[in-house]
Write a structure and sequence with these properties.
The structure is a homodimer. The first copy, chain A, is α/β, with parallel strands linked by helices. The first copy, chain A, has two domains: about 180 residues, 3-Layer(aba) Sandwich (Isopropylmalate Dehydrogenase); about 160 residues, Isopropylmalate Dehydrogenase. Helix content of chain A is about 40%, strand content about 20%. The first copy, chain A, has a ten-stranded mixed sheet, with helices on both faces. In chain A, helix 1 crosses helix 10 and helix 10 runs antiparallel to helix 11. The two termini of chain A are about 20 Å apart. Strand 7 of chain A pairs antiparallel with strand 7 of chain B, so a sheet runs across the interface. Bound molecules: 3-isopropylmalic acid (2 copies). Chains A, B: Belongs to the isocitrate and isopropylmalate dehydrogenases family. LeuB type 1 subfamily. Chains A, B: It catalyses: (2R,3S)-3-isopropylmalate + NAD(+) = 4-methyl-2-oxopentanoate + CO2 + NADH.
Chain lengths: ~350, ~350
């Protein structure tokens, strides 16, 4: 299998290095050939090529079976007047590879449940899969700004078409069929025309092909509340790009350990893109203390979803869980206690 | 002073009735003349006039000193194919009266801190004032839908102009000056052009006229996380209409008691609109068990902000606090324990 690693910026290279060791170990143990290449994306690509996603990086990704990304961005590339920004690389790779469905599982680890900001009786048993639309909506709609009556006006369009909604709802509904058969669609249909199309389309898809599911719709503001007050009531949650950005980040706080959450971005066919959901953490970059577990779990997701190596994925996930159960912690989840460095944590998993 | 009450739908009439008693009591005790009239908005106005905000309701509001709203909406008016909806009345009154700044204080009551879904060490000491832009952004931008290549496309425009951003940032910055002198502006400037205008404009306002404030900017997805993990780090938070809708609702869960949170919507001059932030709760409407405290606190906010009756507002707020400290609870905050009805709770406050 062809795998592309895109370490990116900040702690990216350190954490991807640990995931790479795990992938190589799995390959040798299970007799697979992983042909691993590395590319540049984000700030490091701006530095090297003046482009956060040069064709040199994109081309091998197009032909890959799976892509593992670290993180992009940092203060060095934060100048609002800069010609381009690291995030542009991220948005472009999603669009170019047609990665329209972003899957984010939110499931607390028993060993870390005390780290949740939520009370135990609320967080216990939570198991949500967010499916966020990733290549449409206001992220990719037209934008303009102009001068009018001596002031500036700026606008972005939030646009969805039937087919864009249908395909991501299908991904979510199929996932729900393999889980607790409960699908929730989130919109703002009481205010937005685009949400009314979302609601109607989602309902049609579910009625037609997924009538075995329990299905409900929730407004985005209400969902922001329910996610804190009764997160156990949800199974699969599907929503648009912007609402998904906000709600998945809110949801990522629930387990109390951002450093453990992976995500997968999938298209119709072609490679999937896998990454930890945390950022590039420039403040701790190069110190060897970043938590590699989310990236290792992202590698496991890659084996599962893009290479269909279920047993191998299970093995990695079990290793992470047992490392946590054994009490091993990186600084971010040590709650002030004893902690391991990035490489040591990677070794524990190996 | 001219006051207009708009009880609305569901539990609206029951809770506004209790607030009205409190207002009348305050008037007689402190020797004020409150000329109180009542109007219809939302579903009940659709039933009576086929319009969720008829001119008959709007006209007295224009000439009022303050407006107290209950809540609008309910399953009866939920048909997606209906000609109009209760929420349209709410959006229209905001726009018609130029109520561009929505103020939502988030401050837990000591007596109810155990009801918070967040752990005590996180929620204790939280005191946030959200200032949400209320008459612009995607709520009021152009919207369209059309057929294209055999499918439907729908779009909403998120638009802001310099002056709209400036005036709401000013309201927030002034509020911060009377509080802990810390202002946070929330946007999505790494993706949206309209957010880049927001960020630039907000920074200019603060630099020019509010250099005494500590000022920072946070992305909306990050804010959705911080609000749960470290809410104590914020004082005044200003943001656009849609982000404010989501974040204030998320924030409203923090104190663990939705039934206690009021909000104020203010314009440049003219009357302010005051309301509880909870909805019309059709499931418990007419049962006499709704919590009237948020509406009573909204009435206190009206006295403070629109009538400049500070002492009177203080008195109402102190009464609510002492009623809670004495252990009185309506069903929503009783945690299964003994509870009072709507009228009984109103009497306790009186
Ligand atoms: C970096 C940013 C453009 C990106 C987004 O908003 O999609 C990030 O927040 C994410 O969720 O992956
Ligand atoms: C009812 C709805 C239109 C409204 C909004 O989205 O503004 C409500 O959620 C609010 O926050 O007041």
């Amino acid at each position: 299998a062809n795998l592309v690693l895109l370490p990116g910026d900040g702690i990216g290279p350190e954490i991807v290095a640990e995931a790479e060791k795990v992938l190589k170990f799995i390959a040798s143990e299970h007799g697979h050939e992983f042909d691993i290449t590395t590319g540049e994306i984000g700030g490091c690509a701006i530095d090297a090529y003046g482009d956060p996603l040069p064709e040199k990086t994109l081309e091998p990704c197009r032909n890959a079976d799976g892509i593992l990304l670290g993180a992009v961005g940092g203060p060095k590339w934060d100048d609002p007047n800069a010609k381009t920004r690291p995030e542009v690389g991220l948005l472009k790779i999603r669009k170019e590879l047609g990665l329209f469905a972003n899957l984010r599982p939110i499931k607390p680890y028993a060993a870390l449940i005390d780290a949740s900001p939520l009370k135990k009786h609320i967080i216990e048993g939570v198991d949500i899969l967010f499916v966020r639309e990733l290549t449409g909506g206001i992220y990719f709609g037209d934008s303009r700004s102009w001068e009018e009556n001596g002031e500036t006006v700026a606008t972005n369009e939030m646009t969805y078409r039937t087919s864009e909604i249908e395909r991501v709802v299908r991904v979510a509904a199929k996932a729900a069929q393999t889980r607790n058969k409960h699908l929730t669609s989130v919109d703002k249909a009481n205010v937005l025309e685009v949400s009314r199309l979302w609601r109607k389309t989602a309902e049609n898809v579910v009625k037609k092909d997924f009538s075995d599911l329990k299905y409900d719709v929730v407004l985005v503001d209400a969902m922001a509340m329910h996610l804190i007050s009764r997160p156990r009531d949800f199974d699969v949650v599907v929503t648009g790009n912007l609402f998904g950005d906000i709600l998945t980040d809110e949801g990522s706080m629930l387990p109390g350990s951002l450093g453990l959450l992976p995500s997968a971005s999938l298209g119709e066919d072609g490679p999937g893109l896998y990454e930890p959901i945390h950022g590039s953490a420039p403040d701790i970059a190069g110190k060897g203390i970043a938590n590699p577990l989310a990236t290792i779990l992202a590698a496991a997701m890659m084996l599962r979803h893009s290479l269909n190596l279920i047993e191998e994925a299970d093995r990695i996930e079990a290793a992470v869980e047992s490392v946590l159960n054994a009490g091993h912690r990186t600084a971010d989840i040590a709650a002030g206690g004893k902690s391991l460095g990035t490489v040591e944590m990677g070794e524990k998993v190996l």
